[in-house]
Amino acid sequence: MNSSDHTVAIIVAAGRGTRAGGDLPKQWQMLNGKPVLAHTLAAFAGLPRVLVIHPDDRARAEAIAGDAQIVEGGATRDASVMNALLALEGRGVAHVLIHDGARPLVSAAVINRVRGALEASPAAAPALAVTDALWTGTQGLVSGTRDRTGLYRAQTPQGFHYDAILAAHRAHPGGAADDVEVARAAGLAVTIVEGDENNLKLTFPGDFDRAAAIMKGRGMDLRLGNGFDVHAFCEGDHVWLCGVKVPHGKGLLGHSDADVGMHALTDAIYGALAMGDIGRHFPPSDPQWKGAESHIFLRHAAELARSHGYAIANCDVTLICERPKIGPHAEAMRAALADIMGVEIGRVSVKATTSEQLGFTGREEGIAAIATAALMKP
Question: pLDDT tens across 154-198, in order?
Fold first, then answer.
């Protein structure tokens, strides 16, 4: 995890969950051939993740965590969340999405609704309006009714500005039902976004059968796209490649800043979405895009993917040129692309090759780039 990771998902899974039955806590029971937590982690693919576990579960967690950071939880849920928040301190995190590990079916659409609401609100959470009649009961008999107006069923992930929720947890005495309660106690306004009936929290044995049926019905949508771009050299003293200014004896000619690597990657994402290319979204005939910085195009493509429920699973850019040498700048390029797209750096590859002095790149007349992007909708 690095300073470019602005949004982090915190998966809370330190509880013991005995009501679900079985020999293991519910988050470690099998669902469609994998532990429940493996599905939950996959739902947040493309974001840095912190997995909060019970100390007894470390070996199990290490087997499925991948690049997620593992943090041991506390005696209560709010103590576990606090441990995760403290583990992120000083890392440049802007937003956190706090999610129950026992909600493995959360959709990318719900996640993105929460993320979008955080642009204008310090806190946001998904919920479903209560539509059933509400009763009270005593000894198996109906003893009264309650008005359901304005009542909601809370879900996760609950999203917050990092600094605000950390301060709220520090000020809270403990014992909160969820992080929205902690936030409201600190005076934070919490925006409600639309939840999803399939975003169920596994609690009882029958919930596993329902979850398996939902997963069987929807499957996974995986999209691949590729992009190719070329720019000729012109007079100049630097080139922009994958978001990094690289000193060079020439520049690159183009309508925008001619970042050939970023253009290829942007087209790969648009291609995976079957939504054309840069020229369709940012016509070169429009003077407002003359000299534009290419991060505008790439960020638009990444946000468009998220708005349609897709996470960027991974991407790969290959720059084709004799010079400048890419190796010394490759890590900075990976970090720049990850930051622009809002994904963890481990999902971004940048590499280079030459054309063995053949063709226009071999004659150092320009630079070419090819890129591949994989999008995933759980």
Answer: 999 999 999 999 999 999 999 999 999 999 999 999 999 999 999
The pLDDT value given to residue 248: 94
Distances (CA, A) of 337 to 240, 254, 333, 377: 12, 20, 6, 21
pLDDT score for 67: 86
Amino acid at 121: S
Q: At what angle do helices 260-272 and 295-307 cross, to 10 degrees?
A: 20
Average pLDDT over residues 61-90: 95
Strands 251-252 and 190-194: unpaired
Three-state secondary structure string covering the chain? CCCCCCEEEEEEECCCCHHHCCCCCHHHCEECCEEHHHHHHHHCCCCCEEEEECHHHHHHHHHHCCCCEEEECCCCHHHHHHHHHHHCCCCCCCEEEEEECCCCCCCHHHHHHHHHHCCCCCEEEEEEECCCCEEEEECCEEEEEECCCCCEEECCCEEEEHHHHHHHHHHCCCCCCCHHHHHHHCCCCEEEEECCCCCCCCCCHHHHHHHHHHHHHHCCEEEEEEEEEEEEEECCCEEEECCEEEECCCEECCCCCCCHHHHHHHHHHHHHCCCCCHHHHCCCCCHHHCCCCCHHHHHHHHHHHHHCCCEEEEEEEEEECCCCCCHHHHHHHHHHHHHHHCCCHHHEEEEEECCCCCHHHHCCCEEEEEEEEEEEEC
